[in-house]
Write a structure and sequence with these properties.
The protein has nine helices and 13 strands. The strands form three sheets. Strands 1-2-3-4-5-6 form a six-stranded mixed beta sheet. α7 (205-234) crosses α8. By secondary structure, the protein is of the alpha+beta class. The chain is globular, with a radius of gyration of 24 Å.
Length: 365
Amino acid sequence: MEKFSSDIRTVSQRIKQLKHSISTEEATKTALIMPFFQTLGYDVFNPAEFTPEYIADVGIKKGEKVDYAIMEEGKPTILIEAKSINERLTKHDSQLFRYFGTTQAKFAILTNGDMYRFYTDLESPNVMDSTPFFEIVLSNIKDSEIRELYKFKKQEFNVNTILSTAEELKYLSAIKDQLKTLSQSPSDELIKLLIQECYQGIKTQTVVDKFRPIVSKAFNQFINENLNERIKHAISGESEPAVTPNIDDPVSNEIEEEVTVDIPAQPIIETTQEEIEGYATVKVLLGSVIGKDRIFYRDNASYFNILIDDSNRKWVCRLHLNSLTNKYITFRDEPNVRHKINHVYEIEEYTERLRTIVKDIIEVN
C-alpha cells in the first residue's frame, strides 16, 4: 500500500507538470491516462488485457467504440472513456451510458486525465448510474481516496468487494457535500429544527435569518470540539514536549518571540488553540512510524511548522490557519502547493502522505 501511495503521488506530480502543455485527447491518453493505469498494475500495451478502441455496438449503431476496456478472461470488466484534459466531463456522461448497457462490464470510468469518475449500476441492474459512486482529482488526491483507489489495482481488483462499498461511497460523498453546504449556509428548515428548544417565539423569516450565522458557528464549533476530545483521549497520559502548551487550557498557550541574528525581534506570535489541535492531530497520526517525543512544532508569523527532532531541516508540514476562510496545509514534498482545509480534522485525509514524508526523513537522516 505504501509503494502504491508513493506511485500515485508520482502520477499526481506528473499531471501538475504536464497538464498545461497538453492540448489534445491523444496527448492526454499517452501522457496521463495510460501511465495512470500502468500504476494500477495493468499492461497497457497488451490488448488482451487493456484493449484500445473496444467495440461496443449500441442498438442499430454498429462499430461504436469506447476508448479502452480492461479485460478479464476475454470479457470487459471496466470501460474507460477518455477526453482531453482541457475538457469538462459532464457533457460526456451520456456517451459512456450508452456503451455501458451493451457490455458485461460492471464499472465504467470517465476521465480527462486528471479527474476520474467511477460508475456502476447501483440504481438499476445493467444501467449505468447517472452519478459516479467515486470521484477523484489526481492532481489533488487525498490519502483516503488513495485507499479506495487501491481496490482498483489489478492485483486487488474484486467486483464484489468494490460493489459492497460502492453504495456507501456514493451516499457518503453526497452527505458530506450536503453537510459542508449546511455548515456554511444552514437551510431554513435546519435552523428551525435546531432552535425549537432554545427559542420559544414564532420562527419568522427574520428570526431564522438572525440565527443563521449562529447556527453555522455552532455547527463548526461542535465539529472542532469533538475532534479536540478525540485528540485528548488519543494522547491521554502522554508527556508533551517542553515547548507545547497544555491542550486542555487555552489560556496557557505560550507566546513565542523569535529573534534571529542581525534581525530585530519579530512581532509577538500567538499560538492558537486550533494550531495546537492541528499539531496534536499530526502527532497522533504519525505515532505508528516515529516516537511521539521526536515530533515538535514551531510557530511562525505566516505558518505553524511541524517538524522532527525540533529541526527546521526536518519539517514535515506547515499549517496555515490564521485566516477565517482560507485555511490550508502544505507538505515537505510539495512546499509550494496549498491544500485547502476547512477544519483541522481534515488533516486525517493526508495520513499516508504524512507517514511517507516522515519515513523519507528518517531514511535520509
